[in-house]
Design a protein that fits this description.
Keywords: DNA-binding, Transcription, Transcription regulation. It comes from Ohessyouella blattaphilus. The protein has 12 helices and 2 strands. Helix 3 packs across helix 4, helix 7 packs across helix 9 and helix 11 packs antiparallel against helix 12. The N and C termini lie far apart (47 Å).
Length: 262
């Protein structure tokens, strides 16, 4: 079980998978791909066991049905599953992303933040990128994109109302804008910075920005309205003000902490 946990944890750290279940789906697709012909659930149970993952045949059966529904696998008579063209393409993309993440692990580690000063530097880098993303995202914005932004805002307000941690919806809003830009480098860079920010914020007991959620949620809403109107100048100005507000709050906290230390 320890081997399983280590392997899953290693892949989770790449930021490519949201849950352990996503990792298991990847293992299943990879095992089916490597098999010559259709593969049944009992064979998958054994192959996953070889990876150190203990899963029952019934559970594998449920996972396979989900993969069928997603269009990644298909049953071939009673012999088992094979990958569909979509499944092969999805597996290829994931495998390439994992390889890239592992090759660049040293560079990625250099971006990990665990101190307030480093968070400040990360946010300054994010500000530059967020403005560039905003300019491209607003050009490509569709009605569906606006709906995604508004749903993200609704989730943000819901978390605030329930007084629970609102890091996820707060940062997901920016990830959606990155995807709207259509620029794969903007998307990759911003998602990497967002991932690192989530890690540091989740590990900090005291972070003043956590108490400014009402302000930031309202700013997200204003940005969404500007995007919907296709008002580039207004959207860019609002994004700059939004990021400046966050950076100013973190900088003030850093200065206060340094005063205490001294």
């Amino acid at each position: 079980m320890g081997e399983s946990s280590n392997l899953i944890s290693h892949l989770m750290r790449t930021g490519l998978f949201k849950t352990n279940r996503d990792v298991l789906d990847y293992f299943i697709l990879d095992d089916i791909s490597a098999h010559d012909g259709p593969m049944g659930s009992w064979t998958l149970v054994q192959l996953l066991a070889d990876r150190g993952v203990d899963v029952s045949s019934a559970t594998i059966g449920r996972y396979l049905k989900d993969l069928d529904y997603a269009g990644y696998t298909v049953r071939e008579s009673n012999q088992g599953r094979i990958l569909t063209p979509e499944g092969k393409a999805h597996l290829k993309t994931l495998s390439e992303q994992i390889e890239r993440a592992e090759v660049h692990d040293g560079e990625t580690q250099a971006l990990c933040v665990n101190e307030y000063d480093e968070l400040f530097d990360l946010l300054k880098a994010r500000r530059v990128l967020e403005v560039a993303v905003m300019k491209e995202a607003i050009k490509n914005a569709t009605a569906k994109d606006i709906e995604r932004l508004r749903l993200s805002n609704s989730d943000y307000y819901a978390d605030l109302a329930e007084k629970v941690d609102h890091i996820e919806p707060a940062l997901d809003f920016h990830a959606i804008l990155a995807e709207m830009s259509g620029n794969k480098y903007f998307i990759s860079l911003l998602k990497l910075l967002i991932y690192e920010e989530k890690q540091v914020e989740a590990g900090l007991d005291v972070l003043e920005t956590r108490f400014q959620g009402d302000v930031y949620a309202a700013q997200h809403e204003e940005i969404t309205n500007a995007v919907e109107k296709k008002d580039v100048d207004l959207a860019v100005r609002l994004m700059k003000e939004h990021m400046d507000e966050i950076i100013r709050t973190v900088e003030q906290q850093i200065n206060e902490l340094k005063k205490v230390e001294n």
